[in-house]
Design brief:
The protein is of the alpha+beta class and about 325 residues long. About 35% of the residues lie in helices and about 25% in strands. The chain has 9 helices and 15 strands. It has a 5-stranded mixed β-sheet, covered by helices on one side.
């Protein structure tokens, strides 16, 4: 009968692939590099196949190596997640939690992160607002907070919706005095608008029709920014029309610095998402933080803001 795979040896092989080097795997697992090499060589002998093609600069999986990695990685992640969850039943959450978010997200999340760390003194939180997007999940990051409007693209990453932020189109009275009040989204194509630089991938403005389908409207812009706050500031100065989340605009609307623009279609809502690289790799720490964010945001950002009704033109 063929020998069973040694789980620890497979774990070492997966670490080599994840770290793209034997030395990196040795550091991650706190093992001598020679031990890492012996584990991989032993695994190759037992399976009777070559798993890695090695050179002085590169490490590449063979077809057999890729098959083993793709099957073993989710299982190892699931075991780790299960171990943490079982341990959390008996003890408080503890350990490192590395995350990133766009620069304007702290306005929503700073109190929640502080509360989370207060509830769980064993958590070692690192939050970086310089790194953003899903790409950073390929680095050593457990969780990325991202904003998204419209349909999500297919992705190898797993996302969890944390909050839906109703959006509105706004403009300064000085701009409306020059352009007149538009009533149809098609009119925006010829009007000055404020768009995103790279956040939301610089997509055209997105609206929803009565069937809930996304309608994209390309707009002109000389003012492109990566922040809702910057977009609102530009709108106040009359630089252009802006599509923004409704909740931070209430004071500007109340004082008349901005006016909401009623259109035939409603802007697609802005969604706040928590993203991680694989469904099985979400740890008890990440899951607990996402749960708290979702609960607190439901309490704070979703009360009615009494926007002008869309689609009444």
């Amino acid at each position: 009968m063929r020998n069973a795979l040694d789980l620890n040896t497979v774990r070492v092989y997966v670490a080599v692939v994840d770290e793209q080097s034997f030395a990196g795997a040795a550091r991650l697992l706190t093992l001598p590099s020679s031990n890492v090499s012996r584990h991989v060589a032993s695994l190759e002998r037992m399976l009777g196949v070559r798993l890695l093609e090695r050179s002085t600069r590169h490490l590449r999986m063979t077809e057999a190596g890729r098959l083993l990695y793709e099957r073993a990685k989710p299982l190892l992640d699931a075991l780790l997640s299960t171990e943490e969850e079982l341990g959390a039943v008996q003890r408080e959450l503890r350990g490192p939690l590395r995350m990133c978010m766009p620069g304007e997200a702290p306005r929503l999340l700073a109190p929640i992160l502080a509360e989370f760390c207060s509830l769980h003194p064993g958590i070692e939180l690192e939050c970086d607002t310089r790194m953003t997007g899903l790409e950073v999940l390929r680095e050593d990051v457990d969780l990325s907070i991202v904003f998204h409007r419209g349909h999500q693209e297919d992705s190898t990453f797993i996302t969890r919706e944390l909050a839906t932020l109703p959006s509105i189109v706004v403009a300064a009275p000085t701009l409306l005095a020059k352009t007149g009040m538009p009533h149809y989204v098609r009119e925006l194509k010829s009007l000055p608008c404020i768009t995103t630089l790279s956040a939301l991938k610089g997509q055209p403005w997105q609206f929803q029709n009565a069937a809930g389908e996304i309608v994209k409207v390309p707009v002109r812009s000389r003012y492109r920014v990566n922040s809702g706050e910057l977009a609102v500031a530009g709108a106040r100065q009359g630089i252009g029309f802006a599509i923004v989340a409704a909740y931070p605009c209430q004071e500007d609307l109340a004082t008349g610095r901005l006016q909401e623009v009623p259109l035939d279609l409603c802007p697609a809502p802005l969604k706040l998402l928590g993203a991680y690289s694989h469904r099985h790799s979400v740890t008890a720490r990440v899951r607990a933080l996402l749960d708290l964010i979702q609960v607190r945001l439901a309490e704070s950002v979703n009360p009615p803001v009494d926007p002008i009704t869309c689609g009444t033109v």
